[in-house]
């Protein structure tokens, strides 16, 4: 018989998961995801404008990245957990029920990256893809930490049984509760481990940034290494790993390994391509300055034909390692 634990982390009651407002049902998981998006956008805005980005441009980019990030997150989860949605008797509409949980960060990163790339190549923006990715790093980690609270509310994302005093209590009625374990078994709180890992990552990566000022996507590469390393361990002790794997290793662990490798490749390639300082978060010839907007407003008021409010550099910017053949992101 299992001995009583001195302490443990209780799971929230099911009543925490949603609440009604008039005819609407508000899901706390969705609100936490939204809160994470807001804090990430706010922090990225502060970092990007400090480097010369136009105020408000982050909101324009969010319109591309968030929808595609959500689609990617859900699609990745459904693909790696097909028996949760396509077994006999399952309601296929549950594939779209993102408020019930089941959104994979790796899918979100892929979808968000596609959205960011599309936003950066639009004639309106002309941002450097990697510059925006670098500015996003701490906000992204904070958003992920906030979102993990939604997993706690939904009684999901827990690991193997443990005797540690911070074990997470999970009701035996939970569909992910392992068969054969007695009531009262507690589990590793993976949601809490990831929150701690993400917050620690913010501290460590910002310290590295202050010291070495990595740019050209190298800072984002460091994020991939940090996050992938942590997730590779968390996924290895997860109680409900993805249904696919190779060589006995779940696909999400392989995805975490891939994130680490990709981060290393990004740092190596970008360090070779761009040894100099990053001159602007915009592509060459599309730099934005406050004076340009002021001049445009003045010419409009005077009834003159407004000029392009984008500053075009006649001379190469010192330290800009992007030659004409490397004007991409």
TrEMBL record:
<keyword id="KW-1003">Cell membrane</keyword>
<comment type="similarity">
    <text>Belongs to the Lgt family.</text>
</comment>
<keyword id="KW-0472">Membrane</keyword>
<keyword id="KW-0808">Transferase</keyword>
<feature type="region of interest" description="Disordered">
    <location>
        <begin position="293"/>
        <end position="329"/>
    </location>
</feature>
<dbReference type="Pfam" id="PF01790">
    <property type="entry name" value="LGT"/>
</dbReference>
<dbReference type="GO" id="GO:0016740">
    <property type="term" value="F:transferase activity"/>
</dbReference>
<protein>
    <recommendedName>
        <fullName>Phosphatidylglycerol--prolipoprotein diacylglyceryl transferase</fullName>
        <ecNumber>2.5.1.145</ecNumber>
    </recommendedName>
</protein>
<feature type="transmembrane region" description="Helical">
    <location>
        <begin position="190"/>
        <end position="208"/>
    </location>
</feature>
<feature type="transmembrane region" description="Helical">
    <location>
        <begin position="57"/>
        <end position="76"/>
    </location>
</feature>
<feature type="transmembrane region" description="Helical">
    <location>
        <begin position="215"/>
        <end position="234"/>
    </location>
</feature>
<keyword id="KW-1133">Transmembrane helix</keyword>
<feature type="binding site">
    <location>
        <position position="148"/>
    </location>
    <ligand>
        <name>a 1,2-diacyl-sn-glycero-3-phospho-(1'-sn-glycerol)</name>
    </ligand>
</feature>
<feature type="transmembrane region" description="Helical">
    <location>
        <begin position="246"/>
        <end position="269"/>
    </location>
</feature>
<dbReference type="InterPro" id="IPR001640">
    <property type="entry name" value="Lgt"/>
</dbReference>
<comment type="function">
    <text>Catalyzes the transfer of the diacylglyceryl group from phosphatidylglycerol to the sulfhydryl group of the N-terminal cysteine of a prolipoprotein, the first step in the formation of mature lipoproteins.</text>
</comment>
<feature type="transmembrane region" description="Helical">
    <location>
        <begin position="127"/>
        <end position="147"/>
    </location>
</feature>
<feature type="transmembrane region" description="Helical">
    <location>
        <begin position="96"/>
        <end position="120"/>
    </location>
</feature>
<comment type="pathway">
    <text>Protein modification; lipoprotein biosynthesis (diacylglyceryl transfer).</text>
</comment>
<feature type="transmembrane region" description="Helical">
    <location>
        <begin position="26"/>
        <end position="45"/>
    </location>
</feature>
<keyword id="KW-0812">Transmembrane</keyword>
């Amino acid at each position: 018989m299992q001995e009583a634990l001195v302490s443990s982390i209780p799971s929230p009651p099911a009543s925490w998961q949603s609440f009604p407002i008039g005819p609407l049902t508000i899901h706390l998981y969705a609100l936490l995801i939204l809160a994470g998006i807001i804090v990430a956008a706010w922090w990225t805005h502060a970092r990007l404008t400090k480097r010369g980005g136009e105020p408000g441009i982050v909101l324009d980019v969010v319109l591309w990245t968030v929808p595609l990030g959500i689609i990617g997150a859900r699609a990745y989860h459904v693909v790696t957990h097909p028996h949760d949605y396509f077994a006999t008797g399952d309601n296929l509409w549950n594939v779209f029920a993102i408020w019930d949980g089941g959104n994979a960060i790796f899918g979100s990163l892929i979808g968000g990256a596609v959205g960011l790339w599309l936003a950066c190549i639009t004639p309106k923006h002309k941002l450097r893809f990697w510059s925006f990715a670098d500015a996003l790093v701490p906000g992204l980690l904070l958003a992920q930490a906030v979102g993990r609270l939604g997993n706690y509310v939904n009684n999901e994302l827990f690991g193997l049984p443990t005797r540690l005093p911070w074990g997470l209590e999970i009701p035996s009625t939970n569909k992910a509760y392992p068969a054969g374990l007695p009531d009262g078994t507690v589990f590793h709180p993976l949601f809490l481990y990831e929150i701690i890992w993400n917050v620690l990552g913010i501290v460590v990566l910002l310290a590295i940034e202050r010291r070495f000022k990595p740019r050209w996507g190298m800072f984002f590469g460091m994020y991939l290494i940090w996050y992938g390393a942590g997730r590779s361990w968390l996924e290895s002790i997860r109680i409900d790993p993805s249904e696919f794997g190779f060589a006995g290793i779940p696909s999400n662990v392989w995805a975490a390994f891939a994130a680490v490798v990709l981060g290393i490749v990004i740092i190596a390639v970008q360090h070779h391509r761009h040894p100099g300082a990053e001159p602007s978060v915009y592509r060459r010839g599309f730099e934005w300055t406050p004076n340009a907007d002021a001049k445009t407003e003045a010419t409009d008021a005077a009834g003159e034909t407004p000029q392009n409010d984008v500053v075009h550099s006649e001379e190469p910017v010192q330290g800009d390692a992007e030659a004409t053949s490397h004007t991409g992101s």
